[in-house]
Design brief:
Chain B: It comes from Mesorhizobium alhagi CCNWXJ12-2. Chain B: It is a multi-pass membrane protein. The complex is a heterodimer of chains A (361) and B (263). Chain A is an alpha+beta fold. Helix content of chain A is 25%, strand content 35%. Chain A is built from 9 helices and 20 strands. The longest helix of chain A has 18 residues. The model of chain A has no long low-confidence stretch (mean pLDDT 89). The chains are: A alpha+beta (361), B mainly alpha (263).
Chain lengths: 361, 263
């Protein structure tokens, strides 16, 4: 982000209020050209409002939007080179697939030959070859979604905005479309700004995820960052399943943070910050990062525990493990072969200190 | 439902159908009677009444005049009604309900009251009785129907369609003409046909606001005063056929288009 030449959009300290409520509160971020950026958060977090501000459908109360070096804050949607794929696709029902795709090209004043070429190219690109003369009501959900994508890509926008475009598809199709969408983004090299409340979708497709909550950015990073190194309790809980461990900081040891968790010493990592000794902190430990050992391992930091609850989930078993005294409960996954070797529900757990993230808030 | 109630229901239904159609059948039949007097017995059949009305300058003139009024009224009503619907539909403002009620009032005012008030009003406007006055009167009466039908359709247009058009480079006018108007098409056809029929059928306003040239209903009324004759039946039958065809066509094309746009 340090290189400004690569920045395609700069949202400059933008606030959008509806009445007294700030839907987006002093948002400041830059999006690089060619990035697949996802705004992720629960409903009402301000992600859709941000997208609509980028598209020109909402005027920010404060701040600016700089698109490719030009201030577009006050420009209406038809005068900015940005296109959107709508949640309900918003295909024009009285036009054929071809006419829908050509709509934006016609308004750009392209010649008939150019429009035909570009439409044909997009139809091939999105495997819609035989559908040019169909109307939207003759298409399946997945096909409509592709037509909406083709229509938005047709005018060659600097930014493609996608407002939960997979929400209307069934679960099976959604997984397939996620892969397709990511592939299309790579092949076109376009900057995609995607909005979703589905964390799995965000993790699968994005180069970068911006987690929003109550109009503010909770965390901005790669999917791996967010998943393995969450900075806040909100992010840790919103994305995936995790163990939240509350304790007192006892100090540093070999670069790890030593935490007293209900009388047990545990080691973790603080990413980008240093919690004060004696302070109360919360740390996040992903279920799959908890290693379970049927026998006492050589790792001297391993903790003995007892399984108090098992849930068979096919490829693995989800277990609740009590370590030490009251309240010190860990959730973990057990491999099938380990599950068979554990006797009397006794086992040892350990983890890489890097995987226990001490949260900032 | 038991067998008996089912039979009873169908008997009542068919009785109603008979009640509805007997007068029409009688009217049509009498138009083919070879006699000057309406009534039974019928001794001979003829098409003379029809050839007479199609050769009569008076009838053809009145028909053309009525059609011209109906078409102008329809066009005007569609433009004004759509404008009101587009204005009242999406915007929320103080007193919207009052504005809406005022716009709808001409539809519920009794025809005779509306006709008399319009007759006085055109004097104020220094407008002579005749075609322009009739068109004015019919338009005021028809606009609320257009506005209501168009508003109902407009309420189902997803906001995202307009936004998508804007997003792809359309200004407000282009978005309206290329996305909103085509979406309204079934409503416009339905409302348009309804306007045609209302105007074509109107007697009271045309009578009060007309001058020497009568519209078709006014002509029929004038002819009635000089006695019933099968000629009137023939004229009425022609009108019946035309309006029925128009109504069925409108219903079918609206249904077909609604099906196509329910995405």
């Amino acid at each position: 982000m340090s290189n400004d030449a690569q920045t395609i959009v700069h949202i400059d300290n933008m606030t959008k209020r509806f009445g007294n409520v700030a839907a987006v509160d002093h948002l400041d971020l830059k999006i690089r050209a060619g990035e697949f950026v996802t705004f992720l958060g629960p409903s009402g977090c301000g992600k859709t409002t941000t997208l609509r501000v980028l598209g020109g459908f909402e005027m920010p109360t404060e701040g600016r939007v700089i698109l490719d070096g030009a201030d577009v804050t006050r420009l209406p949607p038809n005068r900015r080179n940005v296109n959107m794929v709508f949640q309900d696709y918003a295909l024009f029902p009285h036009m054929t697939v071809g006419q829908n795709i050509a709509f934006g090209l016609e308004l750009k004043g392209k010649t008939k030959a150019d429009i035909d070429d570009r439409t044909g190219e997009l139809l091939d690109f999105l495997q819609l070859g035989g559908f040019r003369d169909r109307t939207p009501d003759q298409l399946s959900g997945g096909q409509r979604q592709r037509v909406a994508l083709a229509r938005a890509l047709a005018p060659d926008p600097k930014l493609l905005l996608l407002d939960e475009p997979l929400g209307a598809l069934d679960a099976k199709l959604r997984g397939q479309v996620q892969v397709e969408l990511k592939d299309i983004q790579k092949r076109t090299g376009k900057t995609f700004v995607f909005v979703t409340h589905d964390q799995e979708e965000a993790l699968t497709m994005s180069d970068r995820i911006i987690v929003m909550n109550r109009g503010k950015v909770e965390q901005d990073g790669t999917p791996e960052d967010l998943y393995f190194r969450p900075q806040s309790r909100f992010v840790a809980e919103f994305i995936g399943d995790t163990n939240l461990i509350g304790g007192t900081v006892r100090g540093m040891e070999n670069g790890s943070v030593l935490i007293d968790w209900n009388g047990i010493d545990v080691r973790g990592a603080a990413h980008g910050h240093r919690p004060a000794d004696g302070s109360e902190v919360t740390a996040s430990l992903r279920l799959e990062n908890v290693l379970c050992h049927p026998q006492k391992p050589s790792d001297k930091n391993a903790i003995e525990g007892r399984i108090v609850n098992r849930l068979f989930k096919g490829s693995r078993t989800s277990v609740d493990i009590r370590v030490g005294g009251e309240g010190a409960l860990l959730k973990a996954y057990l491999d099938p072969e380990d599950a068979g070797r554990i006797q009397d529900d006794r086992l040892w757990v350990s983890w890489d200190a890097l995987h226990l993230s001490v949260l900032q808030a | 439902m038991t067998r008996n109630t089912r039979i009873l229901m169908s008997v009542i239904y068919w009785a109603f159908v008979v009640y509805l159609f007997v007068p029409l059948v009688l009217m049509v039949t009498m138009g083919f009677k070879d006699s000057k007097f309406i009534g039974f017995p019928i001794r001979g059949w003829t098409l003379d009444w029809y050839s007479e009305i199609f050769r009569s300058d008076e009838v053809l003139g009145a028909f053309g005049y009525t059609m011209a009024i109906a078409l102008s009224t329809t066009l005007l009503s569609l433009v004004i009604g759509t404008w009101i619907a587009a204005f009242l539909g999406p915007h929320k403002f103080r007193g919207k309900l009052i504005v809406f009620a005022l716009a709808c009032m001409p539809a519920v005012i009794p025809g005779i009251i509306s006709a008399i008030s319009l007759r006085i009003y055109i004097q104020f406007l220094q407008l002579d009785t005749g075609m322009a006055a009739i068109i004015l009167g019919h338009t005021i009466h028809n606009v609320p129907f257009v506005a209501l039908v168009v508003m109902a359709r407009l309420a189902t247009l997803p906001q995202s369609h307009i936004e998508a058009a804007r997003d792809l480079g359309a200004d407000q006018f282009v978005a309206f003409s290329r996305v909103t108007l085509p979406y309204l098409k079934p409503a416009l056809i339905g409302a348009g046909v309804f306007c045609m029929l209302l105007s074509f059928d109107d007697f009271v306003r045309s009578f009060f606001l007309g001058s020497y040239q009568p519209t078709l209903p006014v002509l029929i009324f004038a002819k009635l005063r000089s006695g019933m004759s099968p000629e009137i039946n023939a004229i009425s039958t022609v009108v019946l056929v035309i309006t029925a065809i128009l109504g069925i066509w409108a219903e079918r094309s609206m249904r077909r288009m609604n099906k196509g746009t329910s995405v």
